[in-house]
Automatic annotation (TrEMBL):
Transmembrane segments: none annotated. Residues 5-66, 153-215 form the S1 motif domain. This is S1 motif domain-containing protein. The lineage of its organism: Bacteria, Bacillati, Bacillota, Bacilli, Bacillales. Gene3D superfamilies: Nucleic acid-binding proteins, Winged helix-like DNA-binding domain superfamily/Winged helix DNA-binding domain. GO terms for molecular function: nucleic acid binding. It comes from the Bacteria.
Length: 286
C-alpha cells in the first residue's frame, strides 16, 4: 500500500522524465506523476520538489506544484462552481478537478444551498477509498480562526460570508475575521450558506464576538417603506385600499412590513404632502 495520500503536501524526488511530465518518488519508492501542465518552476531529474497530491479524473494519484490553501487539516475559502441536487455542491480549490461538498453537510432546504460564486470555509477529508471531499468548518474551528472585536466596532458595517444556518439566526465570518451572529428578528429573509452578506453591528459581546443586524436603521427603513408605498400607489393609478387603520395582517401580506412601520411611512408621506387619506383609502396627490 502506498504511503502517499491525496490532500497532503509532500517533498518528493524527481526520479524520471517522461514525454508528458516527470515521475516523482519518496524514500519508499512510491511513484506519482507530475504532469507538465502542473509544473510552475523548471525542474530536472535529481531535484527535490514540493507538490500537492490529489486524484485526477481517472482516480489516479497525481501531483501539482500549485499548492492550494485548502488541504487535509488546513482550512480556507473555496468558491462554489456547480450544484447537483443528488450529490451536493462542487468547489474550486485551485486544482484541475473540483471538490465535492456532500448534500449531507448542506442545509435541508435546497433554497439555502450555496449558489455558484458563493464561498465556503472548509478543509479536505478522505473517504474509505481515499477520495477527497470538502468538509465544512465546525464552530470550534471558526472560534480558533476568528479574532476578538473591540467596542469601537459598535454600529460599524461588517461584510462577510455565511458559514452556519440555524433556526434562531445566521452566523457569518466577516472579512476582518470577526464572528458575527444575526438573530432571526434582525433579518427579513434567511441568506444562503456561503452567501456574501452585510450587516450593522448592534452589540459587541464580552468574548469579542459581534451581534449584527441585516435591517436598516429606523430612519433608513422609513424611507425605504415610503418608497415601497409610493411605488404601489403609482402602479394602482394613485389610489390603494389601505390606510393607517388597515389590519396588520393585510399590511404585512401586501407590503411585507409591520403596521407600525406602515403608519410611520404614511405619516412621512403625508407630512411631505405627497399623499392623503379618505375612508379607508390612500391617494397620491396630483
Amino acid at each position: 500500500m502506498s504511503s502517499l495520500k491525496p490532500g497532503t503536501v509532500e517533498e518528493l524526488y524527481v526520479d524520471q522524465e517522461v514525454p508528458y511530465g516527470f515521475f516523482l518518488t519518496n524514500d519508499e519508492e512510491d511513484r506519482v506523476l507530475l504532469h507538465h501542465s502542473e509544473i510552475t518552476d523548471e525542474i530536472q531529474e535529481g531535484d527535490t520538489v514540493k507538490v500537492f497530491l490529489y486524484h485526477d479524473k481517472d482516480v489516479r494519484l497525481t501531483s501539482t506544484m500549485r499548492i492550494p490553501k485548502v488541504q487535509v487539516g488546513a482550512y480556507g475559502w473555496a468558491e462554489v462552481v456547480d450544484k447537483r441536487e443528488d450529490l451536493g455542491v462542487f468547489v474550486n480549490i485551485g486544482l484541475p478537478k473540483d471538490i465535492l461538498v456532500s448534500a449531507d453537510d448542506l442545509p435541508k432546504f435546497l433554497s439555502l444551498w450555496p449558489e455558484p460564486g458563493d464561498q465556503l470555509f472548509l478543509s479536505l477529508n478522505r473517504d474509505k477509498q481515499d477520495r477527497l471531499y470538502g468538509k465544512l468548518a465546525t464552530e470550534n474551528i471558526i472560534e480558533q480562526v476568528s479574532r476578538r472585536a473591540s467596542r469601537e466596532m459598535l454600529n460599524a458595517k461588517v461584510q462577510g460570508r455565511v458559514y452556519r444556518l440555524l433556526k434562531v439566526g445566521t452566523f457569518f465570518l466577516s472579512e476582518q475575521g470577526y464572528r458575527c451572529f444575526v438573530h432571526e428578528n434582525e433579518r427579513k429573509q434567511e441568506p444562503r450558506l456561503g452567501e456574501l452578506v452585510e450587516g450593522r453591528v448592534i452589540d459587541v459581546k464580552d468574548d469579542g464576538n459581534l451581534n449584527a443586524s441585516f435591517l436598516p436603521l429606523k430612519q433608513e427603513k422609513m424611507q425605504d417603506d415610503a418608497e415601497v408605498i409610493l411605488s404601489y400607489l403609482e402602479q394602482r393609478n394613485g389610489a390603494i385600499p389601505f390606510w393607517d387603520k388597515s389590519q396588520p395582517d393585510e399590511i404585512k401580506e401586501r407590503f411585507n412590513m409591520s403596521k407600525a412601520s406602515f403608519k410611520r411611512a404614511i405619516g412621512k408621506l403625508m407630512k411631505e404632502n405627497k399623499v392623503y387619506q379618505e375612508e379607508g383609502w390612500t391617494y397620491l396627490k396630483k
